[in-house]
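dumping this here so i dont lose it
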């Protein structure tokens, strides 16, 4: 008789229900796994056999055939160990098949029967929930993460015998978590860098505040030591808290990558990913023979920081163009393609020239025109078109350097304004499937970024003078909408348009 046990497999960030079918045939003792398994699934044969024997149960002295259906779906990972073991134990009549029909199983088995944690448990359980599964047994270390799904009943087990006894005599205790408790925990004081330690640079701080409020991309250019990197490190301290949908999306990503801890099953802070300029294109966008998320996906709903941005190879920078526009990345391979979310804020820092002192008030630039031109050409026009705010960060004056720390605004005060602006956007776009102004489409721009006659006149003059592209025009309107939100203004006025334009003039940082 063929027995069927439910589990799931992850492809990208999406999970699909898998049926583990087990049959015992009168033939020479062996184990055969079919249904497009990868190497890690095939290796389950020896792990499961030892785990069953070392847990005190008998293993069939016949041929065991295991089919992972649907057979055309690639099966990857070690999470199939537990469901395979349950199917074999059902064949051995240790368990009754009827008792298992409402359950799904996820977990890797060690040789002594201990159930080890696996990656991607949250997306697996969410996929099973969509398939109508009501109960799931997972490794104890993954139980809190699995319980974030909110509907499927989760049981965390530490050993194979514990799972077997759950269906015979002793029930495993259910695992539940309070998602709102994780999100409501105060994290304002958990940041190592604060804007109160940044002297001067008020225009740059204002630009960073606007970027945080609307989810905009920003590029800082200035002399070495002007504070670009320090301000970038302070940037996470003014970012708004995650919404539940954002937190769950991030948790799925970090779960698949194995970056979650058992004690903190939910990602509650926006990520800040600082990438070195030696990073490869695959490292940034993701890839590999079995595609994995890259830095832009790990920075989803957070920040991707590129220090010394022009030192990155141009081909690496150019791969950012499509995800910056679409908020997602599609990685295509011969047999399949995988889509990962990539709604990140790009934060870049660069020197204005190879020596770093072009336009400096104190030190003279020693670079030739050819060197400067070649240096700036590493950032293409289409890439710059996708960066909303481009600002110059000048060297501090002696008076600013001697300024007392107490005179600078702290991150907590800036963050309050950012959070207020984000709340305005959440309310405005509650029926639009977006969260921030930076996600506005052309149709939504027409709906929410209407201009009065004076604002139109200013913008028309800017279009003629600076030859603004259609994309840049849209981004100026989005930026204006964010500045208006920070001012608690329902309408975009000429003042907001003028402020947005001053952050978009590339001539200011010498990039043409």
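and the seq i came up w/
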């Amino acid at each position: 008789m063929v027995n069927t046990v439910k589990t799931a497999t992850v492809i990208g960030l999406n999970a699909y229900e898998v049926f583990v079918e087990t049959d015992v045939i009168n033939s020479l003792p062996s184990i055969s796994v079919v249904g497009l398994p990868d190497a890690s699934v095939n290796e389950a044969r020896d792990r499961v056999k030892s785990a069953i024997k070392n847990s005190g149960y008998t293993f069939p002295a016949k041929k065991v055939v295991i089919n992972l259906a649907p057979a055309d779906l690639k099966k990857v990972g070690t999470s199939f160990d537990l469901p395979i073991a349950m199917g074999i134990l059902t064949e051995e009549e240790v368990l009754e098949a009827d008792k298992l029909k409402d359950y799904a199983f996820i977990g890797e088995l060690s040789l002594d029967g201990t159930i080890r944690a696996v990656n991607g448990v949250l997306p697996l359980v969410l996929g099973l929930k969509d398939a109508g599964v009501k109960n799931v047994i997972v490794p104890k270390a993954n139980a809190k993460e699995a319980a974030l799904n909110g509907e499927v009943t989760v049981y965390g087990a530490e050993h194979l015998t514990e799972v077997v006894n759950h269906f015979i005599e002793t029930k495993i205790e259910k695992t539940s978590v309070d998602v709102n408790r994780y999100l409501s925990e105060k994290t304002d004081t958990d940041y190592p860098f604060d804007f109160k330690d940044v002297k001067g640079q008020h225009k740059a701080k204002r630009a960073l505040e606007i970027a945080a409020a609307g989810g905009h991309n920003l590029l800082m250019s200035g002399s070495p030591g002007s504070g670009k990197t320090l301000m970038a490190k302070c940037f996470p301290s003014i970012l708004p808290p995650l919404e539940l949908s954002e937190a769950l999306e991030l948790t799925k990503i970090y779960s698949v990558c194995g970056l979650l801890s058992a004690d903190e099953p939910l990602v509650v802070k926006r990520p800040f990913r600082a990438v070195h300029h030696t990073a490869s294109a695959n490292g940034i966008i993701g890839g590999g023979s079995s595609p994995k998320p890259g830095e832009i996906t790990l920075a989803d709903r957070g920040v991707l920081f590129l220090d010394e941005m022009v030192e990155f190879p141009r081909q690496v920078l150019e791969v950012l163009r499509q995800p910056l526009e679409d908020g997602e990345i599609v990685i295509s391979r011969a047999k399949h393609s995988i889509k990962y979310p990539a709604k990140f804020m790009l934060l870049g820092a660069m020197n204005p020239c190879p020596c770093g002192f072009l336009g400096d008030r104190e030190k003279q630039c020693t670079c030739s025109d050819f060197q400067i031109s070649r240096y700036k050409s590493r950032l293409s026009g289409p890439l710059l078109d996708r960066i909303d705010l481009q600002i110059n960060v000048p060297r501090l004056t002696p008076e600013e350097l001697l300024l007392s720390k107490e005179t600078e605004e702290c991150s907590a005060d800036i963050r309050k304004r950012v959070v207020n602006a984000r709340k305005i956007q959440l309310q405005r776009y509650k029926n639009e499937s977006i969260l921030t102004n930076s996600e506005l489409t052309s149709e939504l721009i027409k709906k929410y970024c209407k201009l009065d006659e004076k604002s139109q006149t200013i913008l028309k003059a800017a279009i003629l003078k600076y030859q603004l592209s259609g994309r840049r025009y849209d981004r100026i309107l989005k930026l204006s909408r964010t500045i208006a939100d920070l001012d608690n203004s329902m309408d975009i006025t000429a003042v907001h348009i003028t402020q947005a334009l001053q952050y978009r003039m590339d001539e200011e940082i010498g990039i043409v």
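Residues 211 and 217 are 6 Å apart (CA to CA).
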